[in-house]
Amino acid sequence: MNKMMVTMGSLLLPLAFTSCKDGEASKSKIIDKPDIEVSDGKLTPEVLSAFGRINEAVPSPDGSKVLFTLSYEDIEENRSNAEIYSMDADGANLERLTKTSSSESNIRWIENGAKIAFIKKDDKSGKPQIHIMNQDGSDVKCLSSIEDGVECFEISPDEKKIIFGAPITPYNKNEELFKGLSKTTGRLVDDLMYKHWDEWVTQIPHPFVADFSFNGIENPVDIMEGEPFECPMRPFGGAESFAWSPDSKSLVYVSRKLKGADYAFSTNSNLYLYSLDSKQTKELTTGNQGYDTNPSFSPDGTSIAWLSMETPKYESDKKRLMLLNLKSGEKKDLTEKWDYWPEQIAWAKNGASIWFTGYYQGVSPVFKIDVNTCAIDTVANGVCDYASVSPVADNAAIVLRHSMRSPNEICLVKTNDKEVKQLTNVNTELLGKLKLGEVKKVMVPTTDGKEMTSWVILPPDFDPNKKYPAILYCQGGPQSAVSQFWSYRWNFMIMAANGYVVIAPNRRGVPGFGTEWNRQISGDYGGQNMKDYLSAADYIASCPYVDEKRVAAVGASYGGFSVYWLAGHHEGRFAALIAHAGIFNVEAQYLETEEMWFADFDLGGPFWDNNNQIAQRSYANSPHKFVNNWTAPILVTVGELDYRILASQGMMAFNAAKMHGLEAEMLVFPDENHWILKPQNAILWQRVFFNFLDTYLKTSK
What we know:
It contains 13 helices and 38 strands. It is α+β, with helices and mostly antiparallel strands. Strand 35, helix 8 and strand 36 (576-580) form a beta-alpha-beta unit.
């Protein structure tokens, strides 16, 4: 989330239309479920890429059916593709509705469930446009023809209007300077946020309201015309940034109306109420200096619920579930007395309660809160994570469920008997062919007398009488939960399949254990959270089935920082280290990263503020200052499109290791960002990962 600015002049606001035809975006190969051979039940990088990936489970208006997208990867094509499926609400009558070479997304029921609206690329321009089709997938029609495509949309309840996000050009360059230089690649920059996540900021999204009908989308109006701000917010904002009132006369959108340095150093987004009749905009969250996101109207339209962070610059602050009475203006924090927080919210059909998911003690249950009494009920819980809750009745909701042992499947949860019914079995057959590791919850004592929830993952066919090599997993974020997540890169089952015991600790600075535990890490990089990691490493090394001389530490982002820091302080605990996209030089990170509020808050301020004790402690703990203590072989991996933590950070670490005389390798992806997403790159990453670990933890050198 955040903003930008390259050289800023007057906005170029007209939204051009191009022709839009039905049909395929290209003649590319249609990606289907791959045929994959499993040998001896082992999870390999190729098998990992073969799993189906479920997203966007959306119940029909009457709750009788569920739409969802399912994507598969094609290694040879080096891409993935998502298709739309439907099924009855009990899981019966599963049906594939689309079969195209371009992914479908942003699926919505319309005409009381008779039709479906969605985004996919059109066949002429190759840009994502809004399409509709019948409930059975027939009669696909393209409705929009926006020059640079549509990023997301929401249709009004009366289905007469639509709000969509589309890119606009946010600035005019000085034409005199560029005159006659049609082939120049130069960019003139005069403010901060000139690049974001993995792109140079040459366009920003704006919200457009237009007339909606089955004949097309017409008369678009930019409701932020003339404003040099984003909506939805980059880099991950989408349709959750919009909310229609039940009467379709107004809508709420989310924007962080700041630019340049102000944008780079602030998390102050707000909710804005826009009236379709008066064309007037009203700010609803004035005074709050942190993030305000995920607006949602109550079913009767009298209230708005949303998620709100209070602390400026602190992007991992507690998310308060707020409620605004639109008539009286009264605001209420529904979770004021609850020391945890929601991640996603949805109103119950009767408006008496709100469903949500949120991290709690190492997992992510489904909760329901009474909007009057603020009483919270745990609807579904287990050794798993629930996500994307969508109520279908007052006592039932459609959710996604995953764990360290299996990717997303769609489930139905009910409040009356706490029943959870799995509706899809997309990956059941493939999982049945695999030998999976056991996941155990353990409590690790910390150096300050607390207990730390940690997950231990054992290899398949585990033999307690054997001695296994082990991996300490270091989480990124830094405030990201170590819950029952399923990852296609940091996948614990594939680590276990390769014969490694894994420990994944919920060290200081992760959500799900209260605000104090979560916030402790800010201003204390290299402090208690690193002691927590060393406690976890000592715990796993002491297990009778682990060879204490064959333990590695691995991690990405802040986890990469952790690996670099541990490299200089582990005192012989680790025989190998792997860091992806990690911070090596904290002083450089403060100036290099694009979302500067994060570094400013979490590090305590700039390194040149010599009177700031918190900041000076942060920079004194920079991993690059302890290279003289490095002893273990290290693998560094980076993506050159990573503007959150520049690839140069990893390159510095690799260079330092080699100059220090250590065995080191570096894997560089010119076409990846903070994550490794392309199928062939992901497989190469896994192969290099295990080749490196096997070299130093399984062979004698």
